[in-house]
Amino acid sequence: SGARIRRAKNKSLPQYLERGVDVKFSDVAGLGKIRLELEEIVKFFTHGEMYRRRGVKIPGGILLCGPPGVGKTLLAKAVAGEAGVNFFSISASQFVEIYVGVGASRVRALYTEARENAPSVVFIDELDAVGRERGLIKGSGGQERDATLNQLLVCLDGFEGRGEVITIASTNRPDILDPALVRPGRFDRKIFIPKPGLIGRIEILKVHARKKPMAEDVDYFAVASMTDGMVGAELANIVEVAAINMMRDSRTEITTDDLLQAAQMEERGMLDKKERSMETWKQVAINEAAMAVVAVNFPDLKNIEFVTIAPRAGRELGYVRVKMDPIKFNEGMLTRQSALDHITVQLAPRAADEIWFGSGQLSTIWAETADNARSAARIFVLGGLSEKYHGITNFWVADRINDIDLEAMRIVNLCYERAKEILHENKVLMDAVVNELVEKKNITKQDFFHLVDLHGSIKPMPPSI
Ligand code: ADP
User: Fold this and answer.
1) Which of 81, 100, 166, 271 would disulfide-bridge 23, Cβ 3.0–4.6 Å?
2) How far is Cα 348 from Cα 294, in angstroms, rounded to an integer?
3) Nearest C-alpha to atom 25 of ligand 1 is from which residue?
4) How far is the CA of 70 from the centre of ligand 1 (A)?
C-alpha cells in the first residue's frame, strides 16, 4: 500500500501498526449494498476536504456489527487498503484481560501512534469486551474496564484533524454497548454484516478459489448449498482444506468433491468446537498454568487474580489475569527488570510445551504469546534497555536493524531459558495447577496461592542479561 510510516526521533516503532495491509474491496465478497457504505468511508479519507467544505460531518467511529467470521476485520483492512492509509489494530479483549491497569494506557498509546501516522484507520476488534455499559461489573475488574472505556471516549472525542483518523470497531453485541459510546460524534454509524446467503457463499468461495488451482467444472452452487449457516471464515477454511486434500493425493486440481469433503469436515468441526478433547483441555491448561507459575516469581507480575481455560465467545483459549500496579505502568515506571520478566512470562507457554510434550511434538498454541515476547524484546532493545545498546538513543538507522534483531533474539533466548528453569523447579506446582484447571476450568486467586504455598518453589531469580 502507499501508506507511509513517519517515525519521530526518539520514538520507538509503532506497536499497533499492521504493516503491509494490502486488502481491497475485491477481496471481500458477498456484501451486496454494504459495499457502498464502506466506499463512502474511503471517500472520507480520499475526499475529506470536499466533505468538510460542504459541511458534511465525518463520523468519528463506525461500528461493524455481526457474528464472528463474517469479515468485519477484513472489511476494516479493505477500507484502509483502498484509501491507502495506515492500519492500526487492537483487540479490545487485550485491553482488559491481560494486566489490570494497562488498558487505559494502551488505548492512549494506540491513538497516539495512529495520529502520528495519520491518515489512519484504528480498528478495535470485539469492542464489547471493553464497551459494555459502565458500572455493571463489580469489583476491581469493573473499575479497570471503566477506566479503559473512559479513556477510549476521550480519544474518540478529542482531537483536531477529524477525518484523519477514523475508528472502526467490531462487535457482535451492539445492544450491550455503553450508551456513551454510540452518542453522536462517537460510534454514530452502525453497519450490520449478516451471515452470507446462498449467493454470498458462492461469491466468497470464488474469492478464495482465485489463488488456487481449481478444476474448471467446480460446482460452487453445490458447495454453497450444503454450507448453509457458515460464515466467510469457515468458507475460506473449506477451500484451504480442499487444497490439502488435493496435495495429499498428488493431484494438480481442486475438484468439487474435495470441496464437499472439506465442507463436511468443517461442519463436524463446528459441532465439536464446544467439546474439547481431554488432550486439548490439558494442553490449554499447561499453556495458562505456565504463565501463572512463572509470573508469580516476579515482583511486578505476581498478583495473579484469576486463571481460566473456560471457552469463551472470543478466540482465545484461556487467560491469566494479573493485577499490575496501574500507576507504575501508566507513568512508565516499569523497570528494565520487569520488562524482562514480562518477556519471560510470554515465553512460558512455549517452554512448558517443550518440557511437557517434548520438542518433537510442539503444538502451536503458544504462537501468539511467543510473538508478544519477540516484539516486546525488540521494543526493549529499541528503547536502549539492553546492555549492548545501553544509552544509545539514535541507533535505528537502517543498517543497524539487523543488529537490533540479533540483540532481541539474544534476549528472547535468555528469557526462554529462564522460563524453562523456573518451570523445571516448579514441576509439582505446575502439575497441581494443571490438574485443578482441567477439573474445574477456573482457579481463583485464593486457590492459586494455596497451591503455590503447598508446592511452589518461588524465588525471584536474578537477571542473567
Ligand atoms: P470477523 O472480523 O468478522 O470475525 P474476519 O474478517 O476476521 O471476520 O474473517 C476471517 C477470514 O475469513 C478473513 O480473513 C477471510 O479470509 C475470510 N472471510 C470472512 N468473510 C469474508 C468475506 N465476506 N469475503 C471473503 N473472505 C471472507
Assistant:
1) 81
2) 7
3) 28
4) 5
d(CA 303, CA 443): 14
Ligand 1 atom with minimal separation from the 28 CA: 24
Task: Give the pocket of ligand 1 (CB within 6 Å).
Answer: 28-30, 68-74, 170, 204, 207, 232-233, 236
Atom 14 in ligand 1: residue holding the nearest Cα: 74
Q: List Cβ neighbours of 225 (8 Å cut-off, separation of 6 or more).
A: 198
CB-side neighbour CA atoms (13 Å) of 61 = 27
Question: Ligand 1 centroid vs 25 CA: distance in angstroms?
Answer: 12
Phi, psi at 91, each rounded to 5°? -95, 130
Cβ-count burial of 447 within 10 angstroms (0-12 exposed, 13-18 middle, 19+ buried)?
middle
Which pLDDT tens digit goes with each residue over 19-73?
A: 878 899 999 998 888 888 889 889 988 888 888 788 777 777 899 999 989 999 9
Residue whose C-alpha cell reads 481460566 in the numeric block: 308
Cell of 436: 485443578
Give, using CA atoms, the residue closest to atom 18 of ligand 1.
232
Distance CA(189)–CA(170), nearest Å, equals 12
**DSSP classification of residue 462:** P
Collapsed DSSP state (helix, strand, coil) of residue 304: strand
Whole-number Å distance, alpha carbon 437 to ligand 1 midpoint, is 32
- With H, G, I as helix, E, B as strand and everything else as coil, classify residue 229: coil
Strands (E) in 182-301, as ranges, are: 187-192
**Helix 256-272 and helix 232-248: axis angle, to 10°?**
120
Task: Mention every residue, 6+ apart, whose C-beta is less than 8 A from residue 434.
Answer: 282, 285, 286, 289
Residue 240: what residue type? E
Indicate which residues carry an active-site annotation.
288
pLDDT digits (tens, 9 = 90+) for 69-98: 999 999 999 999 999 999 999 887 666 554
Angle at 24 between CA 22 and CA 30, to 5 degrees: 140
Helices and strands of the chain, counted as H and E runs = 18, 9
